[in-house]
Amino acid sequence: MAAEETKAKAADKEAKGVKPEDVSVDPATIKMLKKAQAEKIETIFDRAATMKPCNIGVEGICCKNCAQGPCRVPMTKKIKDGLEEDRRMGLCGATPETIAARNFARMVAAGAAAHSDHGRGVAETFLAMARKETTDYTIKDEQKLLEVAPLFNVATTVEEDGQSFPRDMFDIAVEIGEKALGEWGKQSGEVYYAKRAPEPTYESWKKQGVVPRGIDREIVEIMHRTHMGVDQDYLNLTKQMSRAALADGWAGSMIATDLQDIMFGTPYPLHGQINLGVLEQDKVNIVVHGHEPLLSEMIVAAVMSKEMQDYAKSKGARGIVLAGMCCTANEILVRHGMPIAGNYLQQELAIVTGALDAMVVDVQCIMENLGNVADCYHTKLITTNPRARIASGKNTVHIEFDEHHAFDIGKEIVRAACDNFPNRRPEQQVLIPSERETMVVGFSTEAIKYHLGGTFRGSFVPLNDNIINGRIRGIAGVVGCNNARSMHDSAHLIVVKEMIKNDVIVLTTGCNAMACGKAGLLTPEAARVYCGPGLAEVCETVGIPPVLHMGSCVDNSRILTAATEVVKAGGLGKSLADLPAVGAAPEWMSEKAISIGHYFVTSGVYTVFGVNLPVTGAPKFQKHLFEEMEAMYGGRWDLVEDPYEMAAKMIAHIDKKRKALGIDKARERVLMDMADRQKLDAA
Predict the structure, then answer these.
(1) Helices H, strands E: what count in the chain?
(2) Is the pLDDT confidence value at 8 over 90?
(3) Are 219 and 112 in contact (CB under 8 A)?
(4) Is 526 within 8 Å of 520 (Cβ atoms)?
(5) Range of the domain at 328
(6) Residues 186 and 335 in one domain
(7) Confidence class for position 565, pLDDT limits 50, 70, 90
(8) Does residue 225 share a domain with residue 283?
(9) How many Cα atoms are found within 13 Å in the side-chain-facing hemisphere of 488?
């Protein structure tokens, strides 16, 4: 019944004229939207055309935190123009500032909870691996383990008879795992990683009283404070949301990234391919979608096994294609080179190809409508996480993942996809777009350091030198989701192209990274096409793309550690707030983005969002976020809907920081190529 309703709704939407060319700049997406329309399949693009957002909710001034509401306190033109006193309030007397701050804080809490719950699962699996309770995971990066240990005050050597000996790697891992997992339940003190930040940045947190005590505590406290009749001071609410956001960025997310690197390997540059064209008609096609790599690592291992390859062939397929969607895609890409089928708004369209035998999902950014779309084809939608089941769809099945039997479950999932290959419907045309781009990905902080100086001279100094001498104007972290209220990928690409055209190097993660990959921006060759002369010269000399793919959403913590390395390298100030650096999320959509944005702001970064921000109906609260926070932390929020204007404001901020550092006038320095470095090594 759901499939018939989906087709009926799509027919209604088609009559209202949703034009694929008007909603995406990606050719593969446009092709698949046309196929969906021809087959009467409703997608998120159709719903966005007819379901308009609530004007009051967009401004952040609708309160539904008790049964006396929802209370809506709309901003009037007279209040906005200062012609009328602002006397708006809910039934309990809550002002627009209180309502907007509570709503914003709850978004931070939800976003921090999503990333941090991901991190908790990683920490639990890491500890099980360290205790050898599971044999499907192991320590793949011992060097990273040894680098992380001191951050948790874990010794890497033992003293015996006055001599120092290396500790067993698994003993070190057990202690790290125990301390890492303790960060979620800690009730007092400070999270270990807070002091990983540059000292002036850390001191700004101490001064404002926002150093996180424990991850879960900060999230729970937001939920208490935003309950009806508790915290009714937007400044005090902002203080607590800052604690929770920092607990996300400098604890939950950062711990998740570090422990994943130890278990699965720290990413280093490799080639990959992206877009729906990575699917193959004569192979079993599996897409893994979501955010947690614990499962996807095992599916990669299963797909690569001879047992599963032979099983696929026994079902009439020529082999197996495993591709990713959303941030799970980034995880298997940066470590294994597995292809990416697309970003958030393309998830339904992967099924619309008619070639997808299984979509395997875990948590976050998964549309419930996938079940309805899968019913229109033969695709199996396989949920795997007890936190995230989908009720709709006769083709939806649940195969629960357990890290203690990870590889066996991975094989069970792959086998189910292979079993479904013969069920492709002959009456339905399989249409796989031809679009697929090559890209270079995997720029962890460690990889960037290596590329800038090699194994023995790894350092961020060459980057700093070229920022100081003006070849590189500054650094932009451009990240975030797609949003169906914005033209798919368009704002991402405009902002990124404007950055690199003006010699600003871009660090990217998540769906923005995928948009850049599809547009050909993630290759070294892109530098001579899209970059200003300074950045192009640096990229050519070092051999890197002008846009560095750093991983998934949770890996935004890599941007923080990279920025910290820039500070440590010297010459560009003492804190993150001093750097000629900016952050942006041009097409943000999820609550995670709000938590990410807020931990960048409180870390000292000017951070610009597109689309909208739910604060515009509360002018005092908005002023606090957009202006007053800069004096407290060095960073502030901003909202700019036009991507060209967004880019202009980002460049202006970079120039302001360059002037404050006294490097606004170019200073010529010799740019060393590899031959020059080899001469130094010989000397």
Answers:
(1) 31, 18
(2) no
(3) yes
(4) yes
(5) 276-423
(6) no
(7) very high
(8) no
(9) 25
CA atoms of 344 and 333, how far apart (whole Å): 16
User: Structure tokens of 536?
Assistant: 């192009």
H helix or E strand, kind and range, residue 158:
strand 157-160
Strand order in the sheet with 340-342: 396-398, 380-383, 358-361, 284-289, 320-325, 340-342, 270-274, 437-441
Same-domain check for residues 318 and 182: no
- Give the span between the Cα atoms of 280 and 288, in whole angstroms: 16
pTM across the whole model = 0.93
Provide the CATH number for the domain around residue 173.
1.20.1270.30
595 plus 503 within the same structural domain: yes
Q: Of 423, 458, 492, which residue constitutes the final position of a domain?
A: 423
Residue 80, pLDDT score: 86
Q: At what angle do helices 461-468 and 556-569 cross, to 10 degrees?
A: 70
CA atoms of 513 and 492, how far apart (whole Å): 9
- Classify the phi-psi angles of 66: left when phi > 0, otherwise alpha if psi is within -120 to 50, otherwise beta: beta
Backbone dihedral region for residue 326 (phi beyond 0: left; psi -120 to 50: alpha; all else: beta): left
CA angle 67, 68, 74 (to 5 degrees): 120
- Does residue 412 have a pLDDT over 60? yes
Residue whose entry in the numeric block shows the structure tokens 């793919």: 549
The beta strand positions in 206-299, using DSSP E, are 270-274, 284-289
- Look at residue 109 and tell me if it is in a domain: yes
Cβ neighbours of 254 (radius 10 Å) = 26
Q: For the chain, what percent of residues have pLDDT higher than 90?
A: 89
For strand 163-166 and strand 62-63, is the pairing parallel, antiparallel, or unpaired? Answer: unpaired
Q: Which two tokens stand for residue 107?
A: 């978004």
- Stated length of the chain: 683
Domains: count for the chain: 3
Secondary structure letter of residue 10 according to DSSP: H
Q: Which residue in 12, 3, 7, 16 sits closest to 42, CA to CA?
A: 7
- Cα 623 to Cα 19: distance, rounded to the nearest angstrom: 38
Residue 417 tokens, joined? 């996809």
Quote the CA–CA distance of 608 and 594 in Å, as a whole number.
11
Q: Does residue 591 sit in the same domain as residue 460? A: yes
